[in-house]
Design the sequence.
């Protein structure tokens, strides 16, 4: 049974924070072989959306207020646990992330920095490309916005 949790950084339990850090390291650092500073100082100002299946974090996203990463509110650090891929958790996560952004931060555009290979995935949620391709930590990215 899937359990969804949303919490501001200050309300995260030590276990939730550990689960988030562990999954972000597993995917962004190890799987994608990308050495970068994940602890970027933004987490304490954000909300954190977690999806658990049997006490295992299967999907996660960071909800970022306007002005912190982009001019508009944002969704970042979008991750599906490799052990649970192809079970539509990524799609469920993005649907919930958009809903929570609008509920927490109000109506308005949502801007993201997306890995280029996920362009079609994000377009399926109404995001449109608004930048040229750029390199971020050795991975091609694009900025996208959902009005």
Sequence:
């Amino acid at each position: 049974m899937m359990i969804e949790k949303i919490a501001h950084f200050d309300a995260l339990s030590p276990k939730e924070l550990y689960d988030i850090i562990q999954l972000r390291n597993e995917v962004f650092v190890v799987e994608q072989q990308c050495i970068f500073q994940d602890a970027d100082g933004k987490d304490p100002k954000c909300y954190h959306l977690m999806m658990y299946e049997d006490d295992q974090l299967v999907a996660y996203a960071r909800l970022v207020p306007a002005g912190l990463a982009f001019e508009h509110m944002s969704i970042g650090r979008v991750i599906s646990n490799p052990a649970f891929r192809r079970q539509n958790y990524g799609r469920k996560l993005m649907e919930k992330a958009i809903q929570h952004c609008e509920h927490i931060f109000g109506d308005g555009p949502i801007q993201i920095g997306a890995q280029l290979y996920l362009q079609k995935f994000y377009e399926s949620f109404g995001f449109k490309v608004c930048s040229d391709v750029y390199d971020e930590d050795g991975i091609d990215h694009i900025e996208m916005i959902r009005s």
In short: The mean pLDDT is 94.
